[in-house]
Predict the 3D structure of the following.
Amino acid sequence: MTEKTWYAVYVKSRSEKRVAADFAANGIDYYLPLIKKIKVWSDRKKMIEEPLFRSYIFVHIEQKDYYKVVYTFNVMKYISFEGRAVPIRPQQIEAIKYYLNEKDPENIENQNWQEGRKVEVISGSMAGLQGELIEIRGKNKVKVEIEVVGKTLVIQVPKNKLQFVL
């Protein structure tokens, strides 16, 4: 069995959900991170879900499905570097999921945390992910800035899941 790899694909503007439905119908494993927002019109308000990253969908595929993805209607291209699709580390996908589903951390003792220092996640599904500590949020949480698909995400991480990188 071949191993699956995560990739980001660029899709036509405002077609993310349609492409996701096509992926589902074709048996392609995908992840479309959605955020809830209140949309206001002149006559009403409505809670809607929209993509966290406009025009991007993540696919988790084997090599044999590479062209099946890119030939899907409204898919423009893979995010690539020097002509090759750039694989996305699973920890980055987990970081996005964590960002969208933040939970309260466990209690730990306060340490000497300094903003601007590079940190690494040492446990959990995001282990190995690195970023910059940008804000200290009380006794238990810090905000960490990470880069995913050329975009910056700020996530809150329990201090007990981090270590400083030298």
